[in-house]
Amino acid sequence: MIGTGLPEGGQRGRVTARLGGEVPAVPEPFSVLIDTKYEEAPPPAPELYAALADLGHEPHFTEYVRIRMPLPDQAHALRLADGAPLLHVIRVTLTEADMPLALEEFHLPGNELELSFRL
Predict the structure, then answer these.
(1) Which domains are assigned to the chain?
(2) Tell me: the pLDDT tens digits for 75-100?
(3) What's the rounded Cα separation, in Å, for the pair 30 and 13?
């Protein structure tokens, strides 16, 4: 489980996930956008990151990545072959003080991906 660093009820809205390797996940901003011009209609990523910077934040990211077997509806939505894994990514956008700003969730076909990290 990922902690948000916010008190109970400190999140704005709920986490939204979209299935599909070609459909981008919709970021769910936390309460940092309340009382700003972005409160009613938060911009999608990557415009969200520019909006957060305009509000004085210097966002950075932590991603939680795991491979698992999909639920039946996920396998159907992603048109996965029987036995194909699902790549599940949760990206948390954080302030310079590691307070959460937004959360994104991705579900991607795990059998068609290659991860690359620059160290």
Answers:
(1) 21-111 (3.40.1410.10)
(2) 998 889 999 999 999 999 888 888 88
(3) 8
DSSP 67-98: EEPPPHHHHHHTTPPTT--EEEEEEEEE-TT-
φ, ψ (nearest 5 deg) of residue 102:
-160, 160
Dist CA 81 CA 48 (whole Å): 34
Q: Which residues partner with 98 through β-bridges? A: none
With 0.70 as the threshold, say if the pTM is over it: no
φ, ψ of residue 93 in degrees (nearest 5):
-90, 130
Determine contact, residues 111/89, Cβ cutoff 8 Å. no
